[in-house]
Specification:
The complex is a heterodimer of chains A (335) and B (327).
Chain A lengths: L1 E3 L3 H6 L5 E8 L2 E6 L18 H4 L3 E8 L5 E2 L7 E6 L1 H14 L6 H8 L1 E6 L25 E5 L3 E6 L2 H9 L4 E2 L3 H17 L9 H4 L8 H6 L7 H4 L7 E8 L2 E8 L20 H20 L9 H5 L6 H10 L3
Parallel strand pairs in A: 2-6, 6-7, 7-8
Antiparallel strand pairs in A: 1-9, 1-10, 2-3, 4-5, 4-12, 8-9, 11-12
Chain B lengths: L3 H13 L3 E9 L6 E6 L20 H5 L15 E6 L1 H12 L8 E5 L8 H7 L8 E5 L2 E6 L2 E6 H4 L2 H4 L11 E2 L13 H7 L3 H14 L5 H5 L24 H14 L9 H5 L6 H16 L27
Parallel strand pairs in B: 1-3, 3-4, 4-8
Antiparallel strand pairs in B: 1-2, 5-6, 6-7
Helix pairs in contact in B: 8-10, 10-12
Classes of the chains: A alpha+beta (335), B alpha/beta (327).
Chain lengths: 335, 327
Amino acid sequence: MKLNKDKLADFIATLPGKKVYGPKKSGETLKYAPVTGAADLCLTAANTTVPPKSVVFPQTETLLRFELGTTDIKTPGQESETVLLGVRPCDARAMTIVDNVFSWGVEDPYYLERRAKITLVGLACLEPCANCFCTSVGGGPASKEGLDVLMTDLGDSYLLDVLTEKGENLCQSASGLLINATGEDQEAAEKLHEKAASQISRHTDPAGIPAKLPHLWESLLWDTVSASCLGCGICTYLCPTCHCFDMQDETEGSESRRCRTWDSCMFSEYTLHASGHNPRPTRRERTRNRINHKYSYFVDKFNVIACVGCGRCINLCPVNIDLLDILSKVGEEAR
Amino acid sequence: MIDLEKLRDLARETISRDDVKYLIGWKPGTHGFRISPHFVSNPEETAELIFSPLCSNNLATYLTLTEKRPVPRGEQPDTRKVALMVKGCDSRAVLQQLTEQGITKDSVYVIGCPCEGVIDIKKVEGKYPGILDQVEARWENGKISLYLPSGKVEMARDDIVAEKCLTCRYPNPVIADVSLREEVEVKGNNTFDDVKKMEAKSTQEKWAFWQGKFNSCIRCYACRNVCPMCYCEECILDKTNPTWIQRSVNISENTSFQLARAFHLAGRCVECGECERVCPVNIPLSHLNRKLVKEVMDKFGFEPGVDPEAKPLLVGYRPNDKEDFIL
């Protein structure tokens, strides 16, 4: 099926009662925000600075509210059905990876409810960024994993590849706007996908990395790659698979709330014990943990690398700490 | 022109000194226009050192950012100096750290690098996106030349340098043990046109502007961590007892955070522009800092990080101060 670009606004209007999010410019920064019409949407730029995990796993989330001195506890209301438009395939794959964590052992009702009510309408990347390396870690510019619909920009229209029941439901309510796609359209889209994949110029071979990392625990490599680290939260906060959080009770007057907020393993107080002891005392240990978590621990636990090759940590690091550079150093290191 | 051979010779000499433990300079980054801070602890590693219009990182932050491990029993702490390559603005940070006694004179060896202005990476990446090959940049005849894979491009300095360079009065290091090159011409002035433009707006306009910006803040604290003047042992942001600033990311807490940081830098900010450079969501933090720079200059005639004899602004007083609450 196909959607003409001039019908995009009508398509968004066929989603009544649903919250619709899409990549939106806020000043110079692109992030997912509620959209009301096609004019709000920015589908032409490369990927967003803030990944769409901010919708499924908000940076700040109220888990419950209470009044000081009472036992009256209020939990948040029901989540509404939500559609995310223009999600890049890497970010959709990232959600399937993060799902592992929130449904492992104790199921996280907040996350899982939101996740169940989200429909992901993806947009194939036709012009990958310089630091994209999705094809090295199991994805690709037109990967369908985690998506309900995959759109491909054919110039005047979007080709819609409907992938799940959720996707079908979405397209059914918009059926009046959709036209049939031809075999030529399909071929054109495939060619575009292949071309995009061939344009990805940064690569890594992660095959041996998970097995090797545990042997490099005391390697001087970690001193080298972390020397310039500032210890800020950019690489983790803006990573679509990073999912660490903190919980705090916050009070204003007698109104209190229990919040969940993003946390980062690159912060010094992340592992600080009440005793004052810190098992990860410097940025060396924190950098080592970041790489190990993505390329070793997560693989052991869930059999998938917790990195989708979106390139954000490389693009946005203020001191050019380059994940692919670290991985190639890991590769060169003798066991 | 920068003589890179001279720079590397100077670095080799420095790193061979008995009183220097390592040297921090710049090297080409892993791709495009990027630069990496380079930690040099042996003569071989000096081969990668560069100094070019791409070297915007203020390395003075590493003097106070170092996390010291406990010294093993029976061993002595390494008290040798850190050799640091500094541009004019960076040197102001070192001097301010010294006057505040955040560091001691015998802990640092300063290599001055007179600077004709550094490139704003966001501007240049916006103009030439997607370049993976390392790009070289040079100051040439008052212009900046970029050596792109497609060939050399000359750009007018003022079109491509960071905003901070347009108002820079100190392109030559204010403190240095040794200098890389002869002094360069001072091009910037401080008429505070940028601040005055903001001051001319109504309160509502200003609030609308900042609300938009602070709403985007993701509290990654890159601005704080990169800042050479943000070196409190325990930052007010990290305190939990009491929690001065809540962890919730919303307009109220974000505003408290940004304003607390700006006020803590009053009379201390050296205008190196690093906070603004590193912000992933493009908050124009230098507008805030420059406003306070102007206030401090207007009210006290004080400029931080320029006078080795000066006391930090907010820890000194004059017995003859006109306000009677002072004494």
